[in-house]
């Protein structure tokens, strides 16, 4: 017992000793500001930004997706798995206590050098409680625990990244769906207008007022619009199906709320590049992977040092079950062992080199993730600014084409210009209207991408919806 106390005291005195490098966040070169930042307050980046669209249907779809999406559920299961690995790894820091019991009946040979006991055959009952403990003098188990802890945190951040992407994808798909709805309305109205022109010209051609060429020119416009409608309807169905999968349900029709032009444009937040290091889940995940790789170096280097283990058992052993727990049946043992490497043919050195190389790879992945985050933020900011400028120009172009078509129609009816002029004006107006709707949607999506690129506290609010979200309707 005195030896045991001495060993425990020595273990406690060196408990803080761990081989291998302690983690320190690497210095990262970063810009002082984003080139296209608008300079607005950044605290709104922590709010549930999708509610700024003021569309209850969109709010409901995002809540349903967060509650039922399969990717979120897979990510949650991965977190539970990583938590289990941490518990298993950390358990080695503590004594492992077990029990065993057995019964045997046997007969020994009477012709052995050692006389067989009487009676022969005989019974043997045994009940033992045991304990074992590896004393973590060099911090190998603590480094493995540190790596498992970092891996768990990386998995948590991976789940947060899934939530971030899912929220943005649902909002993006919904905006694109509403844009396709508007394009379908434009195409149907255009086809209806062209159809009325065809009927009018067919009647005029019947009485010799217009030529057959004019009728066919009008018919070609009608068929152009008619061909556009199935394409848009296909895209609507495909977008609804993709959105249904995000919602965690089989493909079904998606409810609609506000029209595209009725959506409130969210405020564009601003941020400093340095804040991305604390806000984006992918950066935090990459850093935790680096922490885990760094800890594995210490675990590998600890293999160079001896391992000390203590094992013991106590209980009773008797030929008679009724005497099993009496004093004379008591039995115990205590064993201390020390094992260490002498020659491993490079086995440990190879493990250390693997760990050091893994840390180097994790460091470069961390740096690359940060650079990609800066690029995402810059791209989303410049897209928002330039798409806004493009949308203004396209809306002016649509207005000009409408005036052009109106004047061309007046001149044609007055006999001052051929129908080809009207045809040219209408042929340019139709795609211009479709493009303007598409650019409007892209402009709204660019704001979604800014919030996605920035990350932030809103992910936590979205995470809460995954735990208490509404059931699918």
Architecture overview:
This protein is of the alpha+beta class. It folds into 2 domains: 15-93 and 136-305 and 349-467, Outer membrane efflux proteins (OEP) (Up-down Bundle); 96-135 and 309-339, Outer membrane efflux proteins (OEP) (Single Sheet), CATH 2.20.200. Helix content is 61%, strand content 10%. The chain has 10 helices and 4 strands, in the order αααββααααββααα. It has helices spanning 2-13, 56-68, 70-91, 140-206, 212-246, 276-279, 281-301, 347-413, 419-454, 458-467; strands at residues 96-106, 122-135, 307-318, 330-339. It has a 4-stranded antiparallel β-sheet, with no helix packed on it. Helix 4 packs antiparallel against helix 5 (212-246), helix 4 packs antiparallel against helix 7 and helix 8 (347-413) runs antiparallel to helix 9. The longest helix has 67 residues, at 140-206. It is elongated, with a radius of gyration of 37 Å.
Unreliable runs: none
Termini Cα gap: 67 Å
Give the overall shape: elongated
What is the helix fraction of residues, given as a range?
55-70%
Strand content: 5-15%
How many individual helices?
Answer: 10
What is the CATH fold-level name of the largest domain? Outer membrane efflux proteins (OEP)
The CATH first-level class of the largest domain comes to: Mainly Alpha
Tell me the domain tally: 2
The overall average pLDDT, rounded, is 86
CATH H-tier superfamily of the largest domain: Outer membrane efflux proteins (OEP)
Compute the gyration radius: what is it?
Answer: 37 Å
Structural class: alpha+beta
- Strand order, main sheet: write it out: 1-2-3-4
Question: Order of SSEs, N→C?
Answer: HHHEEHHHHEEHHH
- Largest sheet at a glance? 4 strands, antiparallel
**CATH architect. name of the largest domain:** Up-down Bundle
């Amino acid at each position: 017992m005195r030896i045991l106390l001495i060993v425990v005291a020595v273990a406690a005195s060196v408990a803080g000793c761990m081989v291998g490098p302690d983690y320190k966040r690497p210095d990262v070169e970063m810009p002082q500001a984003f080139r296209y930042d608008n300079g607005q307050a950044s605290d709104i980046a922590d709010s549930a930004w999708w509610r700024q669209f003021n569309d209850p249907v969109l709010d409901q779809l995002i809540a349903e997706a967060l509650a039922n999406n399969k990717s979120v559920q897979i990510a949650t299961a991965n977190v539970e798995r990583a938590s289990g690995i941490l518990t298993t790894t950390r358990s080695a820091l503590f004594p492992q206590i077990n029990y065993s019991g057995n019964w045997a009946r046997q007969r020994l040979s009477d012709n052995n050098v050692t006389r067989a006991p009487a009676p022969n055959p005989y019974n043997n009952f045994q009940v033992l409680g045991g304990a074992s403990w590896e004393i973590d003098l060099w911090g190998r188990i603590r480094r493995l625990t540190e790596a498992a802890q970092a891996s768990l945190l990386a998995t948590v951040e991976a789940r947060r990244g899934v939530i971030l992407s899912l929220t943005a994808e649902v909002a993006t798909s919904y905006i694109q769906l509403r844009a396709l709805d508007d394009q379908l309305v434009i195409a149907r109205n255009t086809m209806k207008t062209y159809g009325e022109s065809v009927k009018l010209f067919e009647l005029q051609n019947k009485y010799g007022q217009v030529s057959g060429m004019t009728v066919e020119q009008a018919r070609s416009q009608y068929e152009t619009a008619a061909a556009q409608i199935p394409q848009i309807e296909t895209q609507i169905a495909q977008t609804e199906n993709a959105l249904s999968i995000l919602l965690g349900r089989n493909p079904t029709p998606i409810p609609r709320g506000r029209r595209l032009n009725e959506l409130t444009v969210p405020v564009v937040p601003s941020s400093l590049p340095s804040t991305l290091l604390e806000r984006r889940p992918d950066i935090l995940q990459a850093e935790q992977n680096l922490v885990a790789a760094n800890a594995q170096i210490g675990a590998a280097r600890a293999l160079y040092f001896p391992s000390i283990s203590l094992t013991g058992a106590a209980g009773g052993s008797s030929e008679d079950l009724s005497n099993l727990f009496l004093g004379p049946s008591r039995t115990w043992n205590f064993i201390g062992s020390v094992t260490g490497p002498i020659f491993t043919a490079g086995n440990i050195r190879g493990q250390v080199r693997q760990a050091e190389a893994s840390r180097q790879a994790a460091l470069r992945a961390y740096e690359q993730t940060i650079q990609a985050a800066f690029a995402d933020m810059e791209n989303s900011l410049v897209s928002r600014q330039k798409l806004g400028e493009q949308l203004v120009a396209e809306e002016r172009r649509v207005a000009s084409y409408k005036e052009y078509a109106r004047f061309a129609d007046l001149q044609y009816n007055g006999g001052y210009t051929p129908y080809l002029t009207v045809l040219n004006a209408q042929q340019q107006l139709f795609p211009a209207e479709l493009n303007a709707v598409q650019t409007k949607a892209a402009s709204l999506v660019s704001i979604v991408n800014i919030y996605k690129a920035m990350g932030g506290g809103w992910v936590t609010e979205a995470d809460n919806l995954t735990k208490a979200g509404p059931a699918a309707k």
